[in-house]
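Researcher: I'm preparing a figure for a lab meeting and need a structural model of a single chain. I don't have an experimental structure, so a prediction will have to do for now. The sequence is pasted below. Please return the structure as tokens so I can convert it later.
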Amino acid sequence: MKKLLFLLVIAVLLFSGCGFFNDTYVVESDYTLPVGKEPVRDGIVYITALSDLLDTIRTTVADGKKTQTILFDSSYSGNPSEDLASACWQVRTEDALCAYCVENIAYELSQIVSYTEANLNISYSSGALPVEEIITMPYATELDDRIAEAIRSGTSRLAILINRSTLTAETMMAKFSEVYRASPGLAPQEPICDVTLFSGSGTQRLYEILLDTGLSKEEFIRRQEAIDHVELHVEPEVSEKERIQAVAEYLRNRCDPNGFGTVYDALVGGAAGPEGISLGFAELSRRIGLECLVVYGQKDWVDHCWNIVRMDGSYFHVDLFAPQEKGFLKSDEDFWGEYRWNVNDYPKCDVSYAADSVDPLLSVDKDYIQEEWSMSEKKEPESLEEHANMMTEVSVSNQEENPNDETEPVNAVADNKGIIPANNVTDPSAILPDGELLPDSNMVIHGESGMS
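Model: Understood. Here is the structure written out token by token.
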């Protein structure tokens, strides 16, 4: 009987198509999202670890996006709600960019079967620059170029994010001064700089910088174009000493030393004080291939500016407000005592030229020009033409002893750069028969004479 039942069971199994070795099994389980794969839906980021969450929020801000959807993978080991709150707080307090421009980060969490979805909503500060306008760089190696571009363009506000920087707000302000003073032709005058620093974790820094030139955009452009028009052309054979002398003579002939303190005043305005003259000297020197610095220090305990110029591999002091035997191509030893400056900020000047080895073309004397109108009555010219008209109204005299012990006024002619005493014009051919200068005020320098 048992054998019969066994055979019947076997027969039923055979006729039903089942077998012992080809059975099929179906296993049901919860669906899990693929780990490490691209999002199935565009714009959605899958999170598998807390580091992914932090990077996603930072990237969303860096892209300037206002919303972002993220999905916590089922393999995520943390608590999505707690970790999201912590990540938002960390990013806002430890990331320089977010500290600068993010006002608030809000989010909504939704539990969907086996995973959690979060929708981020980012609000940006109305007082911050748009993210796309922020200059970002990994290191400060390109900082000088970016500063020069900002000064040259006359921008009034910029933000610079440097991922690895040790610059403080004070050193960043000093950097702007350093870049401008190395190339004063970047702007009609040095902008006033104000810096606010936003720190991130490690050495990440964001600097919001406000620049004030004190000029309207239109006036800035007008003055910049006037400065760009001033040129000195030198021939290849002209020595560095002759170039230095030519720059000094150019300013000596064209600039009243009783003026203001900008490069525009020196090169276009026709009147500048020590700082303006020094900036003009540095800019013209740079344009003809000379290395030249502006020194900010003191003379006789009074704030004063002069230059340090490189000639034949050595550095020399040049002060156009001093007689040539005391202020032209001098060493530190020559200057120390009457002059004071931070020696750590400038190259050493170990060599001095004797007075008799320098062509007599300097000695700017404040009594040299005697004007019928006072400084308090001066106003800034509205154009180069107005400046030329103003300068023709100036009465110039220089009392010098003549061979007959008589005094005679020095004749003067005017160009669009200022008053030029006729006895100081090196090349008489530069004066037309009617006593006016040639229209082109640019200078071409040749050979030993230094000018032609």
